[in-house]
Each structure stands twice: as C-alpha cells, then as structure tokens.
Amino acid sequence: MECLGVSSVQSLQALSALLSNPQEEEEDEDCKNVTACAQMGPGHIGPPPKKDTEVKSTYTKRSSKDIWSEEEVSEDPQYDDLADPRPQPEYEIILKQNVGTEDLFLGLSKKDPSSMCCEAMLVKIKLPDTKATDVFLDVNEKFLDLRTTKYKLGLHLPHPIHSKEGKARFFSDKQELEVTLLMKRPMDFINMQ
C-alpha cells in the first residue's frame, strides 16, 4: 500500500477548500505536518458539522413501546369485531400451479415447485352444520371475509389476488367451502409463460 505523500495531502486540502464555505475557512497548523494530515479521514473533508441543528423527522414516537402509529396501519377495521362471539372455522390455504408434461419431464417453461410460480390460491374452509344459503362471502385484493350464522372468518391473504376472477364451491357432503382465487404477481409475464 502506498504511503500518503505531500501531493495527496495537497489534493485533500484542495478538495476541502472546494467543499467548504469561504467564510468558515481556517488555517489548520497541524496540516502543515504530513503525518498529522495522514490521519485525516472522510469526515475531515468539507465544512465542520453544525452542532446546534436538530434533525426533524416526520416520525414521532408516542410511547416507548409503540412500534408504529395508527395512521401507518391501513387494515380494514370493520372486520375486527371483538364483540362478535362466533368462532373462526378451520381453514387451509393451498397454492396451485398449472403443470404440464413439458414442465415435468423437459422443464421448458422454467417453472419450479416454489410459490413464485403458483398461479392460484385455494382456500378450503370447513363449515359444519352450515347450508350454502347461509354463507356470505366477500373477497378483496388482500382480504377474505366469510360470515355465516355460526362462524366468522376474516382472513388476510398471503398474496394479492384478482378479486373479480375467483370461484367458490360449497360441498354439502363434506360441509366445506372451496374458494379458488387467481393471484396477482409482479412478474406474471415471466412466471406464467
């Protein structure tokens, strides 16, 4: 490694003179000594920092235990009814992808078993002692709201979906509702081909 010479010290001083205000320039007696200037770092370039200035930020912490403020959380509060005594039914989320022989044997479409290559989401909800006419289902881009006379489910979906392109089927023999939802992917033109 090369030792700092006089020319590099002069280069640092010239750079410091360019970046600093001419009103605040002071001659530093120590910089005439080469060994003192060799200890200079990036913090020595430019004007010295002002000590009395406060950094203002838009984030203000209200309590020492708060992580975020109420304004930062944009969830749907109408689904969080704590006074509702109805239990949450059992449910399962299964990610699906369309796979052909060209995917299994040849790997031509570059799909893999990861969730990034899945096109749809299947939500299976068990609703014992429920009829299909008793089910109210509302699906948004990131939230599934299901209500019956006996059960209530507010489910935040793991991936955004196309809310207008879903299908729901109720199986009376299994007493189960299956909701198939097409997922929105940021790179659909790569993953879906």
Percent of residues in β-strands: 15-25%
Query: Considering DSSP H and I runs of 4 or more, what fraction of the residues is helical?
Result: 10-25%
Helices and strands, in order, run as: HHEHEEEEEEH
* Top CATH class of the largest domain: Mainly Beta
Number of H- or I-type helical stretches: 4
* Gyration radius over CA: 32 Å
Give the N-to-C terminal Cα separation: 53 Å
Supply the number of structural domains: 2
What is the CATH architecture assignment of the largest domain?
Answer: Sandwich
Low-confidence parts lasting 5 or more residues at pLDDT below 50?
none
Shape: elongated
Task: Summarize the main sheet.
Answer: 4 strands, antiparallel
Assembly of the depicted chains? single chain
Q: By helix and strand content, what is the structural category?
A: alpha+beta
Order of strands across the widest beta sheet? Answer: 1-2-7-6
Characteristic terms for this protein:
193 residues; alpha+beta; Immunoglobulin-like; 2 domains; protein-folding chaperone binding; Dynein axonemal assembly factor 6; PIH1D1/2/3_CS-like; DNAAF6; HSP20-like_chaperone
Could you walk me through the main structural features you see in this protein, from its secondary elements to its overall organization?
With 193 residues, the protein is α+β, with helices and mostly antiparallel strands. It has two domains: 6-44, no CATH class; 83-191, Immunoglobulin-like (Sandwich), CATH 2.60.40. Helices cover 15% and strands 20% of the residues. It has helices spanning 6-19, 34-37, 101-106, 188-191, and strands spanning 91-96, 120-126, 136-139, 143-147, 152-156, 167-171, 176-182. The strands form two sheets. It has a four-stranded antiparallel beta sheet, with no helix packed on it. The chain has a three-stranded antiparallel beta sheet with strand order 3-4-5, with no helix packed on it. A hairpin with a 4-residue loop joins β6 (167-171) and β7. The two termini are 53 Å apart. 9% of the residues are buried. The mean pLDDT is 76. It comes from Kryptolebias marmoratus. Pfam families: PIH1_CS. One of its GO terms (cellular component) is cytoplasm. GO terms for molecular function: dynein intermediate chain binding; protein-folding chaperone binding.
